[in-house]
Amino acid sequence: MNAVDAWPSLPVSEWAETKDTLHLWMQIVGKVRLLLAPKVNHWWHVPLYVTARGLTTSAMPYGPLTVELSFDFIDHVLRVDTSHGAVEEVALRPRSVADFYRVTMAARDAPQRAIGEEGHQSQAGNRDRPVGGPPSRWQGSQGAKASTGEEEIAEK
After folding, report:
1. How far is residue 54's CA from residue 45's CA, in Å, rounded to a whole number?
2. CA 43 – CA 25 distance, rounded (Å)
3. In whole angstroms, what is the distance from residue 57 CA to residue 53 CA?
4. Is residue 101 a contact partner of residue 93, using CB atoms and an 8 Å limit?
5. What are phi and psi of 60, to 5 degrees?
């Protein structure tokens, strides 16, 4: 058997919905990387990197922490690891993109909330905000009601 024969057949029609959903989930994780990773010319700071188990953002600063989001396609989880040793996991199971976004943002913010419960240290650049809260650019992901457009229709 040669190396080409070792790969299974993957007809796109059999897993198109999975591919489309995974693509949207990777865009969510990519947006986290876009906002947290230090900027580099030509958007070189935003790719997801291939690992032995899937894809990763690599380490990114997040307040007083360093955080890394990794798709583990062997264990079927999105793993959120921090420099403080906290690990959160989001199961890669059938769910809506909105639900994946909600649980991913909660997993990403859990270590920050835990630190915030220990004390209110200030951070450079965010001196008015306690460590336990998300950076201001993420406040929309902390349970704020998303606009559905129905509010505007009801006002008319």
Report:
1. 18
2. 20
3. 13
4. no
5. -135, 145
What stretch of H or E contains 111?
helix 97-118
The structural domains of the chain, with segments of one domain joined by +, span 15-118
Contact 142, 134 (CB under 8 A): yes
- Using a CB cutoff of 8 Å and minimum separation of 24, what contacts does 49-56 make? 55/26
Give pLDDT tens digits along the chain (156 positions).
676 678 888 899 999 999 999 999 999 999 999 999 999 888 888 999 999 999 999 999 998 899 999 999 999 999 999 998 999 999 999 999 999 999 999 999 888 777 765 543 333 333 233 333 344 444 443 333 333 333 333 343
Q: Is 138 exposed, middle or buried (0-12, 13-18, 19+ CB in 10 A)?
A: middle
How many residues are recorded in the chain?
156
Contact 66, 83 (CB under 8 A): yes
One-letter amino acid of 130: P
| Angle at which helices 97-118 and 12-36 cross, to 10° | 30
Provide the residue type at 26 as one letter.
M
